[in-house]
């Protein structure tokens, strides 16, 4: 029987400094090389009327793929992934927005601030950019990624290795810049631009792979549980054969036929997580938003019953990205929000808990949910006023609840912060 590759071992990870050559060559391997090459050619749309607008979508596709590289690497899979639909278009848009906001802030600082202050803010933003990108790629929240508290949380968890990330990112960017200058002096502008686009893509993918590897190597410090895919050294099961058949249908262009087969299989007999994942990918390809959300709610319940909280939380995050009003079943929200909070995904936890009293005013978890939301808003997100609204709501509506003393203590803490922030009264 042929041997298969071993599954990645999260307890025995080769440190990144021993893999610098592999990390720097990652964009030249497999689907990464194909993807950045095709997208470099797609930049030719810039020569069309209003081409700059079409060109934005090329960059969105690149950043979607970069986020896919970061996520798969963070889960210990060191081969480049195929360009898939598991990363939403919104993540590509938000990554563009993040880079643009950082550049705008740096530019405004350079123009309007004194030289020393301008240099300081540019250095800070340069230093924080990898942390912000890691946060956005994993959490999917632009607001969370722009929060300086998030930057320092990521930097604090990595410690001194984070400096290596910044320096290596700078080396990648400087190398691409030098190549661009050299090509511009020796090659026709059209060819030089094409190669420069390829080099720019190369740098983005290498940087995101590096950041993903840092999350993989230091996943315990991040509170992150990698999703390990274990190769199987045995004959395929019935579900694996069925999955292979549907994948072949997709490769042959029969997406709706594959989707219908998966739909019937899952509704009648259920299936493995891999079948559910394939079903969701095909729903996304076909634009079946409502069916995808309905399946998400049903599968979250199944995953929690199977004690697969990690996959259930990932699924909830994907459904919220698809529709911000999406909420899992009421009994699942507290468990998912607690897991998100422990994993550093504060914004996702708050999104899960938001407006719980409107849809479930009598639910037993309401006080615990809103106390958790208040702590996240106050302690992690710096939104003390919103946190105090929640504690005030709880104190008024649940005076006899077992959590009342804990709620009151945290409310007083928030009140003391608000009082200390007020300017002293004029004498």
What's the helix and strand layout?
Elements: H1 20-25, H2 30-42, H3 51-74, H4 89-112, H5 115-139, H6 142-145, H7 148-158, H8 161-186, H9 189-217, H10 219-222, H11 238-251, H12 255-269, H13 273-286, H14 289-305, H15 309-322, H16 330-342, H17 346-353, H18 356-359, H19 366-380, H20 384-397, H21 404-421
Helix pairs in contact: 2-3, 2-9, 3-4, 3-9, 4-5, 5-7, 5-8, 8-9, 11-12, 12-13, 13-14, 14-15, 15-16, 16-17, 16-19, 17-19, 19-20, 20-21
What's a quick, concise take on this entry?
The chain has 427 residues and is an all-alpha fold.
Query: Structural class of the secondary structure composition?
Result: mainly alpha
The N- to C-terminal Cα distance equals: 87 Å
Helix content: over 70%
Structural Rg: 24 Å
Strand count: 0
Q: Name the beta content range.
A: under 5%
Biggest beta sheet summary: none
Low-confidence stretches: 1-5
Helix-strand string: HHHHHHHHHHHHHHHHHHHHH
Average pLDDT: 83
CA-based shape: globular
Helix tally equals 21
Which oligomerization state do the chains in this entry correspond to?
single chain
Q: How many separate structural domains?
A: 2
